[in-house]
């Protein structure tokens, strides 16, 4: 058995959700905990966002270190009429 403390706002949201969905508080908490534990054990934060790190769609892996050079080049091109 587990006892947990909720704020009054959390308790209200949980009660509303349970009433709308015809579920008991215990059912909702058990399902939420099961999903949380399954999700936590499946992938790390890095794995979740791995496709967002690095070169992205540009395929340029040095964009963060060469931004000043690229900016200078773009400004020179724009103002060298």
From TrEMBL:
One of its GO terms (biological process) is regulation of DNA-templated transcription. It comes from the Bacteria. This is CopG family transcriptional regulator. It comes from Marivirga tractuosa (strain ATCC 23168 / DSM 4126 / NBRC 15989 / NCIMB 1408 / VKM B-1430 / H-43). InterPro entries: Arc_rbn_hlx_hlx.
